[in-house]
Amino acid sequence: MTRPAPRTRLSRSAGAGAAVLLVLGAATACSSSSSDGDEAGSGSASGEPSGAVTVFAAASLTESFTTLGERFEKANPGTEVTFNFGGSDSLAAGITSGAPADVFASASPRTMKIVTDAGDAAGTPATFVRNQLEIATLPGNPDHISSLRDLTDSKLKVVLCAKEVPCGAAAQTALDAAGLKLTPVSYEQDVKSALTKVRLKEADAALVYKTDVHAAGDKVEGVDFPEAAEAINDYPITLLKDAPNAAAAEAFIAYVRSDEGRRVLADAGFLTS
What we know:
By secondary structure, this protein is α/β, with parallel strands linked by helices. It is built from nine helices and eleven strands.
């Protein structure tokens, strides 16, 4: 079997359908690998994790999980962590459609429930971080946005995540808490796409996670608003039932939940307590 290029990052913009085709194709190509030594592996003879681990993770985890993947590989020579980042609902749909993966990290319990209800999770998912919304504006906040109500100004181009995506559901919860209605210029399929609209100056503001504003650096400016406290998302993680490399996948989950993992996630802006 020809081994895939190391540390492949599947494109978020390709969507779940393309991601499923990619990973299903890879699974077909490797279907006879068990008789040839099974490169994916399930741990070395010494009990240390080894082989490839495929992680489906919410787009808002892109920066922190990429860092954790690199550190996990360094701490466990012989492992290779591959990520598919995207909207949690699309990733869940891919998993329930048979896309081979070892770990699912979702941006909400609701999207995790899609996987658990289908019987595709091994055990009970565990919440490992939480996240909170923030308004992302253009650098310098030229429109002087200071509240959620300001986003209802018809002169502003505001972007939201799609309602079925965790960041979109959280945005709707915050708007309901404030008694506001907002008509965005577009609904995006994941939080990174919503933020990109602001970064490219195609929108004046977007409701995204604090972690995404943090990751964007000086390319956007963040504005806190009190209603965000009504819409904090729990992030659950789970081993998948048919994980090709369950032993290494469990080791990766343990690393994410370790003190080191929590430090990386906290540095990215996640709430870890």
